[in-house]
Amino acid sequence: MTEHTEHQVQPVNPPKKRKGISARRIFLYLIIPLVAFVYIVPAIGVILTSFKLDAEIAESGLWSIPRIIHFDNYEEIWVDANVRTYMKNSALVTIPATAISIMLGVLMGYVFSKLPFKGSELLFIFVLAGMFFPPQIVLVPLFKFYNTVNLYDTLWPMIITHCGFGLPICTLIMRNFFSSVPMAIREAAIIDGASEFDVLTRIMLPVSLPALAVLATLQFTWIWNDFLYPIIFTQSDEMRTIMVGLITMKGQYRVAYGAQGAMAVVASIPTLLIFIFFQRYFIKGMTMGAVKG
Amino acid sequence: MIRNRRKWTFLFSIIPLTVYVVIVIIPLLSSFYYSFTDWNGFRQTYNFVGLDNFAKVFSDKLFANAIKNTLIWMIAALILPVGGGLILALMLNEEIRGAKFYKSLFYLPICLSLAVVGQVWIWIYMPNWGLINTVLRALQLDSLTLAWLANPDTALVAVIIAWSWSQIGLSMVIFLAGLTSIPTELTEAAEVDGASYLKVLRHIVVPLLSPATTVVIALMIINSLKSFDVVYMMTQGGPFHTTDTLAMFMFNETFKKYYMGYGSAIAVVLFMIAMIIIIIYFRQVRKLEHLYD
Predict the structure, then answer these.
(1) Alpha-carbon gap: B276 to the closest alpha carbon of chain A (Å)
(2) Could you write out the DSSP letters of every residue in B110-139?
(3) What is the ipTM metric for this complex?
């Protein structure tokens, strides 16, 4: 009986003043900045060092705060013809590969969402499966293939391979987006005499900007950051991308820590800008395409 | 109409499917083919050796070593990115000032190339100027300083920590998405009833988070299986193969030693493991969907 009454009394009590929560909050306000600081310290070393002269690095190491901010390392990187070539190559691979893979995904996604046919579900799974293949499974045959068609040591293998491996995620995201556009819109347009191509380019694409933005940020980041394909499909300095340049620099000539730091920063700027300005799309894409990562 | 529809279906699918088949599917099947040969990458001819490569794979001590390292990597992935991401998500899910800023901060490394991540962490582990040893020396703990990446006992853990640094943000974001779908009334009601924070966590939050947990675990296990980039940048598998993962081992055998046939066999095994994990994952997801229906 007493138990019963207690239970009935409780809801009448004013809501608790959440004292447990406030203690937790104080703890959080102390611990989170600390964790955040420890978390970001690694990146800071590279940035600090990139602004120091070699003499200062030799004297006080990598982890001191620069006495004066010098841009010498950035200048050195900038006048280095190789680094400019690497950046240019990265752009020449990333931009077309991003654009083409998205275009292919748009076409395929449209078919799967608006033009289903017998067996298209199965075909969709077949295309989607590519998302989970470890790239190692195609390297040997592709290496042979690009050699045979004389594309070895050009930028083409990277563009083509990224298009193939980007197709699953691009198809998935476009199909899902197109599926949210009512079928009736397409049918009305078709009855009015529009072709499927008109429906796709004039009706579907203009409303799919969010999905296209998600894919653009995602594909750009992945392709820009990749270095597996370039180390396998290219060998000459003229065909290196910036990430391969960064790797080879690590083991090269003098111990130019300042220049190395500057190069790591420069190589990351394009994806950092995307992260800063399109974070919303970026996060959405990363969570949707998570398993590919 | 129907014929028109067929025409457009064909026109839209032909290019994406051709690219996908030529770049992904045919090479995938060719890898199986080459895994039965002794091709060395240079000769035009090769012999069929039946299952010799697979016999070699399963008797190769270095392969067993790569499997062991990959397994360690997976287990560590369950602790660092999965556990760490969950803790960060739980902390940042509270209404605290600056939560948005902290989320971006923890998420930021995901937009960096693993080449840059590797570079950043090499500077942490450097024997002379690395951050860890600098701090240890400042604390008069000189005896604890190590060449973290050159020491066979610490290299693998060191590389995994660097990799985890780039992955935690991703798992945090997925957990955060899962947390927002848990109704606050549920946890608040439990707290009003006097349940401790840990009890709420154990009996309400964690069970309701299980869809997100499944995704994160699958993601991290698959990414562990593919772990190559950061190893390539930091240690290339050394010292004494202590950081050889499956993907790294395949790369070295194939593109350093030019055992293309043997490398293909390793890739086939890697592919099979990936597919088994993916099938288990999708079964699990289906089970979970039934659970929530």
Answers:
(1) 11
(2) GGS-HHHHHHHHHHHH-TTT-HHHHHHHHT
(3) 0.89
